[in-house]
Amino acid sequence: MSGTAAGVAAREGAARALLATGSSDARRSAASRQQLKSAQALVKLFSGMRGAAMKVGQTLSAVDLGTVPEEIRPEFQAILASLQQSAEPVSFRSIAKVIEEDLGERLADVFADIDPEPLAAASIGQVHRATLHDGRDVVVKVQYPGIAEAIHADMQNLRLGLKLLSAIAPGIDTGAIAGEIRERIAEELDYELEAANQRAMARAYRGHPFVVVPDVVTSLSRERVIVSDFVDAKRFAEFNATATQEQRNRAGEIIVRFYLNGPMRHRLLNGDPHPGNVLFLDDGRVAFLDFGFFKHMGDDEVRHLVQTTQATYERDADRLLAIVAELGSLPPDPRLAEPFLENYEAIFGWLMVEEPRRVDVTQTADMMRRYTQMRGQEGLDQLTLPAEHFVLMRGVMLVIGLLGQLQAQNTWFDVAREWLFGDAPVTELGQAEETFFGTRHTYTTEVVR
């Protein structure tokens, strides 16, 4: 930690000095190289810390910080993106011990075969491919040994890691990031809870025409182990490198339908849309993984989200404030109405454009800046959004990151109208989904025109 901090501080100081002595291309190039080296150092640090810091890296890899020079932005994001799947794995001997302890059986008695090389190593656990004795292909998600105990120390060290991040990308609300992680990391450590969330999603989407949620093998899932069906599919980066524009547009609509439309229909909100959790099957379906950052929503919560979004669409600042004030999130001070509306527009505005639009990944940087500025304004500094608003807003920001990386184009409002106003679907995917869900999960939108 200390070595990384010293190295980042020295490089950022050198970069500032280079830029201060002139504006030549050579100086800018040298300063950019310093930033890339700092990003590489942070990735190495975050991947070693696992847990909370790894979660920061995964989130940042899915969005555009907007605070590094445009000419190095793709390379900068590529460095951060390595955190999506490439944490340093734990030895298989240690992983096998966790599996046997949790399942109470020898590995050979549970699995006909298990690959010692992990498919992925992420923030609090890693995934191995295996075969059951009945021939079923599965993946085994296993918590790192001792990770729960390490989280406390990890959170202490996270503050220094975030300071290093703010040195590279000033303007990021690192306090809000740390606060969110503290609240959610405990839930993500409970794999039994995550397995229950995944089962609920798998039931909702079983047989769906274009969405796949792998089934959980309940009998083999415990507090530190989840076993679920293996999905043979491409990872996000592989799909993104070869897909046609039409395929990107279609994938973008599926992502919006799963992460944004879906919760309004079946009341299950998955708040962790990043590239490592999206897989692309050869038959055009898209698989979604990881249900630790999750919320079961009630009818009132959905109603509030619909009402606030409708007020944003109508640019009715007073009504938006009244709804949020009713929830106890803000005082009903008329001076807060316009700045609060501006921030909601920054987050949801792209979804309400009534013409084809390609989402710009740099919008996430604007959202971060606006949110930080808003929290600094008098009267808004104590803002406490309801859980469903906060999780959805975070999810929207990460969805924008995914759509921006895909360069997907669509009239997104055609998709949003279904839950926002109860309109009939106009896209082919929307019509297929409506046929599938039928009367099982209908929108219950209270229409405001």
Automatic annotation (TrEMBL):
Pfam families: ABC1. The keyword Nucleotide-binding applies. The keyword Transport does not apply. Residues 83-321 form the ABC1 atypical kinase-like domain. GO terms for molecular function: kinase activity. Keywords: ATP-binding, Kinase, Nucleotide-binding, Transferase. Belongs to the protein kinase superfamily. ADCK protein kinase family. This is AarF/ABC1/UbiB kinase family protein. It comes from Paraconexibacter antarcticus. The lineage of its organism: Bacteria, Bacillati, Actinomycetota, Thermoleophilia, Solirubrobacterales.
